[in-house]
TrEMBL record:
Belongs to the WSCD family. The keyword Chloroplast does not apply. It comes from the Eukaryota. Residues 145-237, 248-342 form the WSC domain. Pfam families: WSC. The keyword Transport does not apply. SMART domains: WSC (SM00321). This is WSC domain-containing protein. Coiled coil: none annotated. Keywords: Repeat.
């Protein structure tokens, strides 16, 4: 009898300890939940407060630089930069740019990165919950500038409107779309998926029930912006001929008529009292990017391999052919005055992810401010494939770079943007397109972006603050180290100079496409040249009213240019363009 009682006592004691353990675990779990809820409330309250005043954030810095940057100095430009210049006559592999410090720069840089990632996280949450918000938000009537026509079918193979295309995943409204289409010379504006805007002068698909266009505009709740495969179409605000004001109309020059006119698919437009303005408007109505005037005839068409617009003739040939009658010699009767209309060349607007995941990872690497976004735009036009990014820049994604959200190692994009220059980061890529731009222009472009965003300009007041000399002191040596590190550790390198892309775009795009092992047609390359500006270029060329570079700054930058130029030549690459530095 005693043994069973003893066993029962032992069991109860163990059970008490077990129950005590469960109770403690339960209390600890409850405490953790309470702490999480408290932190969530604090975060939500903080989200309603006004944001801290700071410059726009930039992509996360190269990890090689996170390990250190040169100390920020206002006056002198010595130290590591002087060691780079000392090697200007011959770059030798080694620990040239490895001793890096700079805690103050690193702290401010990391703060920018945290703001960027926090803003990106909130944008993801907003888009994820968009459908729930749309279901709970009552419809309201929003006034439009133009007239609503109806809802139409639309798909990637048979577009209802086949003109210009642009995207804004955050701020798209019907008014924004109509204004863009009107400025580009189109009569109709269509919206789809709440964020995509299409322009055109002809609707080529069937109309469906209005209720099938059921998605709100991303930037205007209650305003319908199409649906899934459905386009909400508006007529733009009507204006009388001659009163319209277009953007990006430019004179391309005088060109000889191609020998095989039929291969250029020129469309002859008959008009009375022909003028350059009336010829441009006639070609825009027919959705052609080129208007060609040879009095009394007007022709519309595209740039083609037989009519590339790469070899202009003397201007006097066009002036004679447009003012002289039939008695003009036949050798001077076939020259066109060519104008670029605002109509977008639609031959290269369709883009997709790679049909099969690529096993090769290609970097598009550059110093910030060197034109990486512009070159991504050109590559997407020329190849028809999206480019990716090592970073998550919500601004670029909202403007149509759909590869921005894709994981950079997914293999679905044709190349990946990066500003990294550490050895470990460089060796993760199989090859690299190394984009180089003049450090003077790169530094100014990046400072403009920091102060006023991707498309803005810094004011004179910004250039006069102490932040500018500190910026040059830190970033100028980064410009050099970025190039030298990629030359040193990159496995397969194609060097592309920004300035050469501006002057000889098609040959450089052809070499980039070959490096990417992608076949592109001449028509698509010419289309990319026609649409090269896109929506990602700062308007005009606004400069500060004074020279922001002091003699000390120029001495530093010129020495870095010599070092990089020598390193390129030592590795059998083309040296830097002559305009970088007078030699």
């Amino acid at each position: 009898m005693a043994k069973p009682l003893y066993r029962l006592q032992r069991f109860l004691r163990r059970a008490q300890l077990f129950l005590l353990f469960l109770g403690v675990a339960y209390i600890m779990a409850g405490s953790v939940l309470l702490l999480q809820r408290a932190s969530l409330v604090v975060t939500q309250r903080g989200a309603t407060s006004p944001p801290l005043p700071s410059l726009p954030s930039i992509p996360s810095p190269p990890r090689a630089l996170e390990l250190g940057m040169p100390p920020v100095r206002v006056g002198g430009y010595g130290g590591r930069s002087s060691r780079i210049m000392a090697r200007g006559q011959g770059y030798q592999p080694g620990s040239l740019l490895d001793n890096r410090t700079g805690a103050r720069w690193l702290m401010s840089r990391n703060l920018e990165i945290r703001h960027l990632r926090r803003r990106w996280f909130h944008s993801l949450m907003t888009e994820k919950d968009m459908s729930q918000v749309e279901r709970s938000t009552p419809r309201r009537n929003v006034p439009h500038k133009g007239s609503y026509i109806g809802c139409f079918l639309d798909n990637s193979k048979e577009r209802a409107l086949r003109g210009s295309v642009f995207t804004d995943f955050r701020k798209m409204t019907s008014t924004m779309c109509q204004d863009t289409c009107s400025a580009s010379g189109y009569q109709f504006a269509g919206l789809e998926y709440g964020s995509e805007c299409y322009c055109g002068n002809h609707i080529t698909s069937l109309r469906v029930r209005d209720k099938e266009c059921n998605l709100d505009c991303k930037g205007e709740k209650g305003s319908v912006c199409g649906g899934v495969g459905r386009l909400s179409v508006f007529t733009v605000e009507d204006m009388l001929p001659g009163q319209r004001r277009y953007r990006n109309v430019r004179y391309r020059g005088c060109f000889r008529e191609p020998e095989n006119s039929s291969s250029t698919s020129l469309v002859h437009v008959l008009q009375l009292n022909l003028t350059s303005q009336s010829c441009i408007e006639a070609c825009m109505n027919k959705e052609f990017p080129l208007a060609m005037l040879r009095s009394p005839d007007c022709f519309c068409g595209y740039a083609t391999p037989d009519f590339t617009l790469h070899e202009p003739a003397e201007e006097e040939h066009c002036s004679q052919s447009n003012t002289t009658e039939a008695s003009l010699p036949s050798t001077l009767q076939h020259f066109y005055q060519v104008y670029q209309t605002p109509v977008q060349d639609s031959r290269c607007t369709e883009k997709n992810f790679l049909p099969e995941k690529s096993s090769s990872l290609v970097a598009l690497s550059s110093f910030p401010g060197a034109g990486n976004t512009w070159v991504r735009h050109l590559i997407e036009l020329a190849t028809g494939y999206y480019t990716g990014s090592y970073y998550f820049d919500g601004t670029l994604y909202n403007r149509g770079f759909k590869g921005e959200k894709d994981y950079w190692k997914s293999g679905r994009t044709i190349c990946v943007k990066t500003h990294e220059s550490g050895r470990r980061e460089i060796e993760m890529y199989d090859s690299v397109i190394l984009l180089i731009r003049s450090p003077y222009r790169s530094l100014m472009a990046e400072f403009n972006r920091k102060c006023a965003g991707h498309l803005g300009y810094a004011s004179d007041q910004h250039w006069k603050t102490k932040e500018w000399p500190e910026f040059v002191s830190s970033y100028a040596s980064w410009w050099a180290s970025h190039v030298l590190d990629w030359l040193r550790f990159g496995q397969r390198v194609l060097v592309v100079h920004f300035e050469e892309l501006q002057t000889v775009l098609v040959p450089r795009l052809r070499s980039i496409a070959s490096f990417l092992n992608t076949t592109v047609t001449e028509d698509r390359l010419l289309c990319a040249e026609s649409n090269q500006d896109g929506h990602f270029k700062r308007s005009g060329a606004r400069q500060p009213t004074f020279d922001p570079f002091t003699p000390d700054m120029r001495g530093l930058i010129d020495g870095l240019i010599r070092a990089v130029d020598q390193a390129l030549r030592d590795r059998n690459h083309t040296g830097l363009p002559l305009e970088y530095l007078p030699r």
